[in-house]
Amino acid sequence: MSGKINKTNAVKTKTIMKIGEKRIKKLERLNKVLAHAGIASRRKADKLIARGHIKVNGKVITEYGIKVAGNDEIEVNGIPIFKEDKVYFVIFKPKGVITSVSDEHKRKTVMDYFKHIKQRIYPVGRLDWDTSGILLMTNDGDFAHQMMHPKHEIEKVYIAKIHGLADKENLRPLTYGIKIDGKKTNFAHYEILHVNTKKRVSIVKLTINEGRNHQVKKMFEAINLPVQKLKRESYGTLNLTGLKPGEYRAISKKERRSLLKMI
To answer: Higher confidence at residue 46 or residue 203?
Structure first.
């Protein structure tokens, strides 16, 4: 009888240990939680913590790396944050719209198209003011980080209208990398879609797997073919099918899984 009791107690102990391990795993770094809530990036969240803007369970926190549990009460400048459902969208960003949550000059931002979305979403990466095309929006900090991290090399396809006559000779440098801002780009793929010899303009499809600042424009500028117009057609497995400029749609679970498989 005592043997059975000991075995039962052993099973209970193991079960409790497993539950404890799961609870420990649920602990997350405070800066990560703040990023998920759309308060700030992890780096900016660390600055808010260091400056004493954050409270956890009523206590001001100034230490980096602190972890919090799901039932902890977190405040930013006295205002409690709410754990929102994670949402994911793809928008056809029009030309002339700022890729930002806000703009000090009161210019139109991508957020103006999401006024009816209650979650505090933000753009994944950016598109220049004068560039149109596909842009991801979310309140999931982990997802955004995975999409933007350079090591994951998610392919993006751009359609560029350039000044000059594109041919295999002058576009060849794109395929083995061009030095911009002191660093060489990864290999790119191109396809010449149209060449207008009369107007001396060309349409080129360019596929890259990086996301540096003004990268496509700088790559074409480096080979003396300046960009006149630019549109991002696809982001990984996502494209603009069915969307007009200014329109957006939710990203499905299946589409998210396909994106995450790419990394």
So the answer is: 203
